[in-house]
Design a protein that fits this description.
The chain has 202 residues and is α/β, with parallel strands linked by helices. It has one domain: 3-Layer(aba) Sandwich (Rossmann fold), CATH 3.40.50. It has helices at 35-46, 53-61, 69-88, 108-117, 132-139, 153-161, 184-194; strands at residues 4-6, 23-28, 49-52, 93-98, 122-129, 175-178. The protein has a six-stranded mixed sheet with strand order 1-6-5-2-4-3, with helices on both faces. The longest helix is centred in the middle third of the chain and has 20 residues, at 69-88.
């Protein structure tokens, strides 16, 4: 049975009722753990908008090489501008799918917090994980071809060995969720329950 782990600390918006701050839910984890699938289900349950990071990545790959200075700068600028504008306009909630890797600059998380919090919003991090056999199975799923996603186990192993899929500035997650044996709807329901989010059906 999948395990669910969480920290004792919760952001202030999880402890209050009736505030209108935008909640930015950052779903992060290795390629293949189910971020987009869970994000879409979580969005359906909560009414939060889903901001898939590959929308930005694929846009910029049409012009710039991955990891080039222009790619890195513009990718983060687009991400942060969207966060800031959504928070300023009191968007009810935003779900961002994200992979920490070496081309993300060290101060990105600090700037992410600033973009959201200075515009009246708040941020919570949810780390999705799964077993290695399940990860390898998901990496080769045809659905990943809809975006320029990593879909090769050999390439995943090469990137891992090179340290490309790790980052020293990864924040402590408010919630860690093992999706190995969970459906997307079950995983999303656990996030709603443990983070005390309001369901659209309530």
């Amino acid at each position: 049975m999948a395990s669910l782990m969480k920290t004792n600390w919760l952001p202030s918006w999880l402890k209050r009722k009736g505030n209108d701050k935008m909640k930015l839910i950052v779903l992060y984890g290795l390629p293949g753990v189910g971020k987009l699938t869970v994000a879409r289900e979580l969005g359906r349950m909560t009414g939060f908008k889903v901001f898939h990071n590959h929308l930005t990545v694929d846009l910029l790959l049409s012009v710039f090489e991955f990891s080039s200075p222009s790619f890195v700068e513009l990718r983060e600028q687009i991400w942060l501008d969207v966060f800031a504008r959504a928070a300023a306009e009191k968007n009810r909630g935003l779900i961002f799918t994200f992979v920490f890797e070496r081309t993300v600059r060290d101060d990105f998380i600090q700037r992410l917090h600033r973009a959201v919090e200075t515009n009246g919003g708040e941020v919570v991090f949810v780390n999705l994980i799964c077993s290695r056999p399940e990860l390898e199975k998901r990496l080769t799923d045809p659905s990943r071809q809809a975006f320029k996603k990593l879909n090769s186990v050999a390439e995943f192993e090469a990137l891992s060995r090179a340290g490309r899929l790790s980052h020293p500035e990864v924040p402590v997650a408010h919630l860690v969720l093992d999706t190995t044996d969970l459906s997307a709807s079950s995983a999303a329901a656990k996030i709603v329950n443990d983070l005390r989010l309001k369901s659209e059906s309530r």
